[in-house]
């Protein structure tokens, strides 16, 4: 009788009491990191070194699963609906907050809502760069804008889809400068960059990571950046703000999220692992090699960053309006 009473008491423990024991052993099996875009884009180039570092720390596989489609909406929604057990994570981009608002603008139900995902850790937050082929006639932002105004609808740019992390910054610029440019959407940043390098389009707004090797090799030229300050690696590239476009500020950040129902002990286990990985010099070197700067934040700092940035981007999307 006494043994049964003890067993019954143990089974009656609430989840908040029982969960820490499970979190202590986390993960115990493979953890999938979803990237909602094809390989080669900003989320992918951040996810891979982070996943490799987590594998070393956890001694468990951390495969990166590319689930592209609908400018990232499909992969984001997949993780939002995943089991909240800590084994399905999302390396999201700044478009995470944009896509539900864009769906409402288009008159359809969002595939997910931002509050269905729990922020765990931010790894990078770089401003996008306006890049063009080095063989193009534009050597400055002013030349590019003047030509776009002189030839409405004739200069094309690629993106990772309507309202994506690469479309919104360009739409900010075209709206602010009064430009009519041809938007050519692709499924992700990798294909959008390939289109630029292959001469299918003439411009691209990209995070510095994917375009850095091509800038260094002289295949591409950067005309401007969307940050409040110039990038340390590209000090010669002016910001759009200093060129007279104060509303054109945009950061393509990459951060890890879990399904919102993930218990607090598991969230803390994930946060602690991300903090440890970010502190490893090898992680910073791997991100830098891909053209990214480690800008680690978690807990309240990441939540506040997400709140402010999401509000700013939602305002920008409403100014851009309906895009078919």
Task: Describe the protein.
- It holds the Pfam family TctC.
- InterPro entries: BUG, Bug_dom1.
- It comes from Belnapia rosea.
- With 324 residues, this protein is of the alpha/beta class.
- It is 44% helix and 18% strand.
- Helix 7 links the parallel strand 6 and strand 7.
- Helix 3 packs across helix 10.
Index terms:
324 residues; alpha/beta; D-Maltodextrin-Binding Protein, domain 2; 2 domains; six-stranded mixed sheet; five-stranded mixed sheet; 12 helices; 44% helix; 18% strand; globular; disordered N terminus; BUG
The beta-strand count equals: 11
Low-confidence stretches: 1-21
**Largest beta-sheet details:** 6 strands, mixed
User: What's the CATH H-level superfamily name of the largest domain?
Assistant: Bordetella uptake gene, domain 1
Radius of gyration from CA coordinates: 21 Å
Q: What name is given to the CATH topology of the largest domain?
A: D-Maltodextrin-Binding Protein, domain 2
How many structural domains can be distinguished in the coordinates?
2
CATH architecture of the largest domain: 3-Layer(aba) Sandwich
Reading side by side through the largest sheet, how are the strands ordered? 2-1-3-10-4-11
Distance between the termini: 69 Å
What's the CATH class label of the largest domain?
Alpha Beta
Shape: globular
- What's the helix count? 12
Percent of residues in helical segments? 40-55%
What proportion strand?
Answer: 15-25%
The pLDDT mean sits at: 91
What is the H/E string?
A: HHEHEHEHEEHEHEHEHEEHHEH
Structural class estimated from helices and strands: alpha/beta
Protein name: Tripartite-type tricarboxylate transporter, receptor component TctC
Signal peptide: 1-18
InterPro entries: BUG (IPR005064), Bug_dom1 (IPR042100)
Pfam families: TctC
């Amino acid at each position: 009788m006494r043994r049964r009473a003890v067993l019954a008491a143990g089974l009656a423990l609430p989840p908040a009491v029982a969960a820490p024991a499970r979190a202590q052993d986390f993960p115990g099996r493979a953890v999938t990191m979803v990237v909602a875009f094809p390989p080669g884009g900003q989320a992918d180039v951040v996810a891979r070194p982070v996943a490799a570092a987590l594998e070393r720390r956890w001694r468990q596989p951390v495969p990166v699963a590319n689930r592209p489609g609908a400018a990232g909406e499909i992969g984001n929604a997949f993780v939002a609906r995943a089991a909240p057990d800590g084994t399905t994570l999302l390396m999201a981009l700044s478009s995470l907050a944009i896509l539900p608002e864009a769906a409402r603008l288009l008159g359809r139900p969002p595939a997910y809502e931002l509050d269905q995902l729990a922020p765990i850790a931010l790894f990078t937050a770089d401003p996008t760069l306006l890049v063009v082929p080095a063989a193009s006639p534009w050597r400055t932002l002013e030349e590019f804008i003047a030509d776009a105004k002189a030839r409405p609808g004739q200069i094309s740019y690629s993106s990772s889809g309507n309202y994506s992390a690469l479309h919104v910054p360009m739409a900010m610029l075209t709206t602010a400068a009064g430009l009519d440019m041809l938007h050519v959407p692709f499924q992700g940043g990798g294909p959008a960059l390939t289109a630029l390098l292959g001469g299918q389009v003439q411009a691209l707004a990209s995070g510095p990571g994917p375009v850095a090797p091509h800038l260094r090799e002289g295949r591409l030229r950067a005309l401007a950046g969307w940050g409040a300050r110039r990038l340390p690696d590209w000090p010669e590239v002016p910001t759009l703000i200093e060129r007279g476009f104060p509303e054109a500020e945009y950061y393509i950040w990459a951060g890890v999220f879990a399904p919102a129902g993930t218990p607090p002990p598991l969230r803390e286990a994930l946060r602690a692992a991300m903090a440890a990985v970010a502190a490893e010099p090898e992680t910073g070197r791997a991100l830098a090699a891909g053209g990214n700067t480690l800008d680690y934040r978690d807990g309240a700092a990441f939540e506040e960053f997400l709140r402010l940035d999401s509000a700013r981007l939602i305002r920008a999307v409403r100014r851009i309006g309906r895009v078919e």
